[in-house]
Amino acid sequence: MSRIGNLPTLVGVDGSPVALAAIRWAAVDAARHNVPLHLLYAIGDLGEFGSGFELGQFDFDNYRQGGLDALETARATAIAESGSIAELDISTELVDMPPIPVLSDRSKTARLLVVGTHGLGAVSRRLLGSVSTALARHAACPVAVIPETPAAPNRPVVVGVDGSRSSAHAVEIAFDQAAFRGVELVAVHTWSEFLRFESSGQMQEKGEELLARSIAGFREKYPEVPVHRVVTEDRPADRLVMLGDKSQVIVVGSHGRGGFSGMMLGSVGKAVLHAAEVPVIIARSAS
């Protein structure tokens, strides 16, 4: 990834089964990249519970202890998952702050932020939690959103390519993911004749040229990664989800062509994030 050095992989912990899935995924990623793993449990504040609650009604000490117990379980899970790869440098943190602002702030000094698809109480992958959705829009580093059910490890990595700056960041992350997993990379570019004045043959040719340019430098950096190119007429999110559901991770830019620095989250990224059944990495950055 572009954020190199010894920056940690940051994981949001909430005690839910899907958070444990995110911890397992993050532990392997951190071990493979030889970076620290930081586990953070944000217990929020009493104001989040509305005017119906008063301090005397809420056992804050027990709530805090629950967070500490969840962090201990998270640490044990990370150690067990990464033990065969490397010894992880693991730190834990419990904060009396709402999760979205504190994780967003910590993401400024992280190489990757990992969260589950939803927190306690959600019932479906399509009911993406408010925390994961907000962080995918606002974090200052790439965000990996992990479902409870793991993807098969021998499947490829899929990346969306549109020639934008954000897409280049996604391609870089995708090559890195494919390299350490030892799998094929499927690079996808789609086009449409809608509101264009070129033939389908011309659109296809330009799409193939754009895709070739977009991956050229990374193919030299990661010669061990086999690349399968897909250039076709389709809606980008539809094609990425279709191919991605047979992959182990989908990587997309935080916004596409026409987006601007600091834009929240593009339509393609949002659609993939809410529809895919496998881990999704949003290639966010601080810039």
Overview of this protein structure:
- The chain has helices spanning 17-33, 60-82, 99-106, 130-138, 165-181, 200-221, 236-244, 267-275; strands spanning 9-13, 37-42, 90-95, 112-116, 143-146, 157-160, 185-191, 227-233, 249-253, 280-283.
- It is an alpha/beta fold and 287 residues long.
- The two termini are 15 Å apart.
- It is built from eight helices and ten strands.
- It has a ten-stranded mixed β-sheet with strand order 3-2-1-4-5-10-9-6-7-8, with helices on both faces.
- Helix content is 40%, strand content 18%.
- The longest helix is centred in the N-terminal third of the chain and has 23 residues, at 60-82.
- Helix 3 (99-106) packs parallel to helix 4 and helix 7 (236-244) packs parallel to helix 8.
- Strand 9 (249-253), helix 8 (267-275) and strand 10 (280-283) form a beta-alpha-beta unit.
Tell me the number of strands: 10
In whole angstroms, how far apart are the ends? 15 Å
Content of β-strand: 15-25%
Overall mean confidence score, pLDDT: 84
* Helix-residue proportion: 25-40%
Order of strands, main sheet, comes to 3-2-1-4-5-10-9-6-7-8
SS content category: alpha/beta
What oligomeric state best describes the polypeptide chains here?
Answer: single chain
Shape field: elongated
Number of helices: 8
- CA radius of gyration is 20 Å
Q: What letter string, H or E per element, gives the SSE order?
A: EHEHEHEHEEHEHEHEHE
Largest sheet: 10 strands, mixed
**Spans of 5+ residues with little confidence (pLDDT < 50)?**
46-51, 119-128, 256-264
